[in-house]
Amino acid sequence: MPGVMTMMAVAPSPCLSVKPARLCSISSKELLVKKRSSSSAHLLRRSWAARAAATAATATATDPYVEQQMMQRLAEDGWVDEHILPLLTPVEEAWQPADLLPSFASSADEQRSQVAELQARAAGVPDDLLVCLVGNTVTEESLPTYMCMANRVAGGSDDTGRDGHGWARWLRGWTAEENRHGDLLNRYLYLSGRVDMAAVERTVHHLLRAGMRAIPRPTSAYHSLIYGAFQERATFVSHARTAGAAARHGDACLAKICGVIAADERRHEAAYTRASARAFEEDPDGMVRALAAVMRAKVTMPGELMADGRDGRLFDHFSAVAQRSGVYTAADYADMVEHFVRRWKVAELGAGLSSEGRRAQDFVCGLPRKIRRMEELAHDRAAKMEAQSVNFSWVFDRPVRTQ
């Protein structure tokens, strides 16, 4: 109500009234005492608030030095070489994008035939699945951001770009394998003729410039290992579901493409899960508090800041399509939390936990039930809503159901 606010702004001061209020009779000394008292109360409130915030931070904070020392120890004693690096595929044995797409080493007629067959199969892929596929592609194409984030982890970074310790070799090997994913998906989309590649490429450009919000402490080894395990499992689920849906719609090429990518993500998930399990053995109290911190911050997708320059809620709409089509859902998130709680034996952590650690343990172990309950409520609300659609620039502005 701007009119009322304007009247309040221009109203005369009580001290200028014909009948002075009590405020006008207060001496300057009394005013100073009241001001000091008010300021003291304000400072006290701020002190209480700061103390409460510090207490909350302490409950989930872990010792960066302890984390760094653990990472270095695992690299120095050969644990990374023995348990993590074997999960990378040797280059000579790894698939490459050219292995799964039309070959341009063949004759011109055969090339045209292979592309025509790919496009004929792609014609049967529905728009909602294409939106999920493009969203996954955009996420994979932002690999430079993820490598930069991973290279900030204390005790696990590749400082020179050619470090010889296990974590540095894992980071470079992981990046090399992940790099094929975006290349393969991008080339398939281009050859399929089903999407507006300019809009897709613009979205990738925006996302690389925007960066990502991932974990509470990007330099924390504990946070990074936990986030890596969750994120790799989420991408495995998403690509595997897309593969299954593509097969049902008759696109065997896309099904195979998403299937081999999902297999990579499965191996990468195993690496981060295994490293997190070892960290739980080394520092159960620190890790359970780190897990609670990551869960409270929520495991957001690395493509959360994607934009196409038109849709201000592009990621939300992409996520809604993925939820509705069953490619990735809230129920999957609850399943993941439950899986990792069981895999890392969080409920079995015992005497070594601090009071903060026990509270973190209770929170994490009770989280799957809360997520499932929230998902049920959201599903009930969605069932009562009318159908909604959004025009996606990725599929030439065709409307796609989000609700």
From TrEMBL:
Binding positions for Fe cation 1 per the UniProt entry: 140, 178, 181, 265
Cofactor binding: number and manner: Binds 2 iron ions per subunit.
Pathway(s) annotated for this protein in UniProt: Lipid metabolism; fatty acid metabolism
Keywords assigned: Chloroplast, Fatty acid biosynthesis, Fatty acid metabolism, Iron, Lipid biosynthesis, Lipid metabolism, Metal-binding, Oxidoreductase, Plastid, Transit peptide
Classification via InterPro entries: Fatty_acid_desaturase-2, Ferritin-like_SF, RNR-like
Binding site for Fe cation 2: 178, 232, 265, 268
Record-level Gene Ontology MF annotations: metal ion binding; oxidoreductase activity
Cofactor: Fe(2+); Fe cation
Gene Ontology BP, a term: fatty acid biosynthetic process
Subcellular compartments: Plastid, Chloroplast
Gene3D superfamilies named in the record: Ribonucleotide Reductase, subunit A (1.10.620.20)
GO CC term, one of those recorded: chloroplast
Family to which this protein belongs: Belongs to the fatty acid desaturase type 2 family.
Quaternary assembly: Homodimer.
Official protein name in the record: Uncharacterized protein
Organism: Urochloa decumbens
